TrEMBL record, chain A:
Keywords from the UniProt entry: Cell membrane, Membrane, Transmembrane, Transmembrane helix, Transport
Similarity field: Belongs to the binding-protein-dependent transport system permease family. FecCD subfamily.
Source lineage: Bacteria, Pseudomonadati, Pseudomonadota, Gammaproteobacteria, Pseudomonadales
Bilayer disposition of the protein: Multi-pass membrane protein
Protein name per its UniProtKB record: Iron chelate uptake ABC transporter family permease subunit
Membrane-spanning residues: 45-65, 77-95, 107-126, 133-151, 181-199, 267-287, 293-314
Subcellular location: Cell membrane
Automatic annotation (TrEMBL), chain B:
Taxonomic superkingdom: Bacteria
Membrane topology according to the record: Peripheral membrane protein
Gene Ontology MF: a single term: ATP binding
Source species taxonomy: Bacteria, Pseudomonadati, Pseudomonadota, Gammaproteobacteria, Pseudomonadales
Organism: Denitrificimonas halotolerans
Record-linked InterPro entries: AAA+_ATPase, ABC_transporter-like_ATP-bd, P-loop_NTPase, Siderophore_ABC-ATPase
CDD domains: ABC_Iron-Siderophores_B12_Hemin
Subcellular location: Cell membrane
Pfam families associated with the record: ABC_tran (PF00005)
Full protein name: ATP-binding cassette domain-containing protein
Keywords tagged on the record: ATP-binding, Cell membrane, Ion transport, Iron, Iron transport, Membrane, Nucleotide-binding, Transport
Domain ABC transporter: 2-236
TrEMBL record, chain C:
Keyword Cell membrane belongs to the record: yes
Pfam family, one: FecCD
Intracellular or extracellular location(s): Cell membrane
Protein name as it appears in the record: Iron chelate uptake ABC transporter family permease subunit
Length: 319, 252, 332
């Protein structure tokens, strides 16, 4: 049950590309002293690696527990949900009660709230009362729109004079990484990925569907709840670092399936992370150093992801 | 032995299964029959903990299914439902191998490989074992799933309408296979069947349901009778003995 | 489609129409009264003060009028689009029409920032037409097994067009401007800056005249051909009308989402799918909704303003989710 020859080839190629991207990111066009470069680029690199890790893993696992390859947590509006929670939480941090909290505890509290809401939404959407893939995606997308506009509204209402500064946080940007949360994000992401790798065989069984998974002895409800918590946490990390991305997860998850041609999570999980690294960091190297364009990578990735989504949708409808 | 005590299932305020208490003893093939909407499939999926019960309890070999750990139960009881669509591109062998998950947690040992070979052989799938599921016909895919359930190597095997959507040739093959599993391997097979004549020809025990309750339970000789079946299906039915088999006629 | 005899429904519809007229008038009067500087309409007659009169005629009156015209046209555009797509879950901002129009505005700003208004309107209309045609032609290629695929596809198409605009805007440092076009409001409306909306109003009038034909359009190509309507021509006209309405509103105020979804769906509960019966109610209700959204935006965090687009998007997505959840068995 290993990989085919083609799968091994493509996976190795992706790994080499990912490594090359990381090296290129650190070494190309170095004009100042190394200590500064390591400090400046190193932190940005780490942040982008975390985003790649979180988005890749969260999307693949979400698609496993929902048994489809179009739906992603971002499409269900979960990352804008984090933005909404964050915007509302800013209100709390402005009060006397919130002032003394260190940044990390604020982040953890926000993630907890976001994950709980996401879990409730997930329960409601996937307990069988909502049927049909298209219904789910549509509810998710419109829900995402609602969260985004609510975040926008609350930002305006609670802080009308500083609104324009806030506005930036609703679009992903890789040049403006929120470095303050890097270390707590790193710890959480490492923990989550370790957990997922530990559960990789259970994930394989879960992808066969609920009935088969229960038949094979997987404690379904517990497992899915745990996985949703992990997905919510990973998504919060990524969104807190760079902002929401609607189609990035879809892109890298489908790349991972294509690269490995396998259903086994011990291959698809790392492949999704590697593909995400190539897209994010390789793309950044390409744009910044090789093409020296100022095109925002996030937008280009979103555009590609959107086109891929339409293609998948049309293919699914035609079958 | 499978024991249910006062098992009920309500959706909103509609009772689909109403206070069912039955015993299914070890060994042999038991069929559950009844008209559409009688609650057959719901009962089967409650027994196999796929659907939570509204009331009542189910015990398998004295183990309460709601309290027994999943893997523990998965080594005793296997369930296969009707629709097993998967988005995955799996080969038949990959699928069958999943049957070993309760035993090995996904890390296949030599002994597991033997079980897989045996299950594939048992279902006559050797020629297809490296083919992808989506390339197979409905009957072949159904057999692949049954092979997975067999590979699980459980005392109890529960199947929900295994003959649905497969042609007559494969349907007969499937019933013979289940019969052999009961006779040769000593498994306890429970099937929900739509076709009462299959139930008549292959079962040791028949449970007949109507409107969420068990109307009759007994051997084919006791259940496959004109007056009993007419009562269950609310339709005039005659039973004829043909070549030693009790065949039910109700077409006109 | 429920065919109710007109004698039964007419009196109820007339009552609704009257009620809506009163509502629009009341909202309009309130709208004239509310703003950064307090003023009382009565002053106009008791103390014809120069400053206040001027404010009224230069700013308040145009704004209120623009709201009424834009609201009515957007609601009618939504209704027409729903007939053309034969799906009640779409509206121009959800299928790419509005985003294509915004792309047109962006291109105008890049190529010739001081372009004449009529020329700009033509360019933007052209883009809106292209966006709509793109959506309808993709729609024609897929088997419509689920009603939900239509809005889904529309949303993603709109998103892709918006992403392309975003890239372009970033390249020419117009991101901020694009963002303001995408979130429409009426705070910058003054005399001489809104008259294009009369075009939209004229088109709305035309749509009312052609109402019966658009009902037929909603029954599909076979039906339309059977009753002797030139389906392709009517479809092309519908695309043009919707696109021109959207173009004028986007040029003047920016994108205003969801009016075309909320209003026709609510009105349909009252009148059924007969366009002729629905269209006046839709227009009036659209005006009322637009006035209400603008008013709320002005008073909520006074003296600041919240763009109507934000409030409309919140209300609209809530209504949309409600429609989906309530009809979930029907759609799936």
């Amino acid at each position: 049950m290993g990989l085919t020859k083609r799968g091994r080839w493509l996976l190795s190629l992706t790994a080499v590309l990912a490594l090359g991207s990381v090296l290129g990111f650190m070494t190309l066009n170095v004009h100042s002293d190394w200590a500064f470069i390591v400090q400046y680029r190193g932190t940005r690199l780490l942040a982008m690696l975390l985003v790649a890790l979180s988005m890749g893993l969260a999307t693949v696992v979400f698609q496993t527990i929902t048994h489809n390859r179009i739906l992603t947590p971002s499409l269900m509006g979960f990352d804008v949900l984090y933005v909404l929670v964050h915007t509302l939480a800013l209100l709390l941090w402005g009060t006397e009660f919130g002032k003394g909290w260190p940044l990390e505890s604020r982040f953890i509290l926000e993630v907890t709230v976001m994950v709980s809401i996401a879990l409730l939404l997930f329960r409601w959407l996937f307990n069988g009362s909502v049927r049909g893939l298209h219904m789910l995606i549509l509810l998710g997308m419109v829900g995402g729109l609602l969260f985004r506009e609510l975040a926008d509204l609350s930002a305006r209402v609670f802080n009308p004079s500083e609104f324009s500064i806030q506005q930036g946080s609703s679009v992903a940007n890789f040049n403006r990484v929120n470095l303050q949360l890097l270390w707590v994000g790193l710890a959480a992401a490492v923990f989550c990925s370790g957990l997922l790798f530990h559960l990789r065989r259970q994930l394989d069984v879960l992808s066969l569907g609920r009935d088969v998974a229960i038949n094979l002895g997987v404690p379904y409800r517990k497992a899915v709840t745990l996985l949703m918590l992990v997905i919510g946490a990973l998504l919060s990390i990524s969104t807190a670092l760079v902002g929401p991305m609607l189609f990035f997860g879809l892109l890298v998850a489908n790349l991972a399936y294509w690269i490995t041609g396998s259903h086994q999570h011990r291959w698809t999980l790392p492949a999704s992370v590697l593909a995400a690294i190539v897209c994010l960091i390789g793309g950044q190297v390409l744009f910044e150093h090789l093409l020296s364009t100022r095109l925002p990578l996030a937008m280009v990735i979103e555009l590609c992801g959107g086109v891929l989504f339409i293609a998948l949708l049309l293919r699914g409808v035609k079958q | 032995m499978i024991e249910t005590q006062g098992v009920s299932k309500a959706y909103h305020d509609r009772l689909v299964v109403n206070d069912v208490s039955i015993n299914i003893s070890k060994g042999g093939l038991t069929s559950i029959i009844g008209p559409n909407g009688a609650g057959k499939s719901t009962l089967l999926s409650m027994i196999s903990r796929l659907t939570p019960m509204t009331a009542g309890s189910v015990q398998v070999d004295g183990l309460d299914i709601t309290r027994t750990p999943g893997p523990e139960l998965a080594k005793r009881l296997a369930i296969l439902r009707q629709h097993n669509e998967s988005i995955l591109r799996l080969t038949v062998r990959d699928l069958v191998a999943f049957g070993r998950f309760p035993h090995s947690g996904g890390r296949l040992t030599e002994a597991d490989q033997q079980h897989i070979d045996e299950a594939i052989h048992y279902l006559g799938l050797e020629a297809y074992q490296q083919r992808y599921l989506d390339e197979l016909s409905g009957g072949q895919r159904q057999r692949a799933y049954v092979a997975m359930v067999m590979c699980q190597d459980t005392e109890y095997v529960l199947l929900d309408e295994p003959l649905n959507n497969i042609d007559m040739h494969h349907a007969v093959g499937m019933m013979q296979l289940l019969r052999r599993a009961a006779d040769e391997k000593g498994k306890t097979v429970v099937v929900v069947l739509h076709d009462i004549n299959f139930a008549s020809c292959y079962s040791d025990q028949i449970i007949a349901m109507r409107a969420g309750q068990v109307a009759y339970q007994g051997t084919p000789e006791q259940i496959i009778r004109g007056e009993v079946l007419s009562d269950i299906y609310q339709l005039p039915m005659q039973v004829h003995e043909l070549a030693g088999q009790r065949i039910c006629v109700y077409f006109r | 489609m429920a065919v109710t005899s007109s004698t039964q429904v007419q009196p109820r519809i007339v009552l609704w129409l009257l009620g809506l007229v009163v509502l629009v008038v009341v909202l309009a009067l309130v709208s004239l009264n509310v703003g950064a500087s307090r003023m009382n309409l009565l002053h106009l007659f008791t103390q014809p003060d120069d400053r206040i009169t001027q404010l009224l005629f230069v700013s308040r009156w145009p704004r209120t009028l623009a709201l009424i015209l834009a609201g009515a046209s957007l609601a009618v555009a939504g209704l027409l689009l729903q007939m053309m797509a034969r799906n009640r879950l779409v509206e121009p901002s959800m299928v790419g029409t509005v985003d294509a129009a915004a792309l047109g505005v962006l291109l105008c700003a890049i190529v010739a920032p001081s372009m004449a208004l009529w020329l700009k309107f033509s360019v933007v209309s052209l883009f809106a037409v292209m966006g709509t045609v793109l959506f309808l032609s993709v729609l024609k290629r897929i088997p419509l097994r689920s009603a939900l695929i239509v809005p889904l596809l529309g949303l993603v198409l709109a998103g892709v067009i918006a992403a392309a605009s975003g890239l372009l805007a970033h390249q020419f440092e117009l991101s901020q401007a694009l963002r303001s076009w995408n979130s429409g409001d009426f705070s910058a409306i003054l005399r001489g800056r809104y008259e294009l909306l009369w075009v939209a109003a004229g088109i709305t009038g035309l749509a009312m005249l052609l109402a019966d034909r658009f009902t037929v359009l909603g029954m599909g190509k076979d039906f339309a051909t059977n009753v002797g309507v030139n389906y392709p021509a009517l479809l092309a006209l519908g695309v043009l009308l919707v696109s021109m309405i959207i173009a004028s509103v986007v040029v003047i105020a920016g994108a205003l989402p969801f009016i075309g979804l909320i209003v026709p769906n609510l009105v349909r509960l009252l009148t059924g799918d007969n366009v002729r019966r629905a269209i006046p109610v839709v227009a009036l209700a659209g005006s009322a909704l637009m006035l209400a959204a603008d008013l709320l935006g002005r008073v909520l965090i006074h003296p600041y303003e919240i763009p109507s687009a934000t409030l409309l998007a919140i209300a609209g997505s809530l209504v949309f989710i409600l429609i989906l959840v309530r009809g979930r068995r029907q759609w799936a």
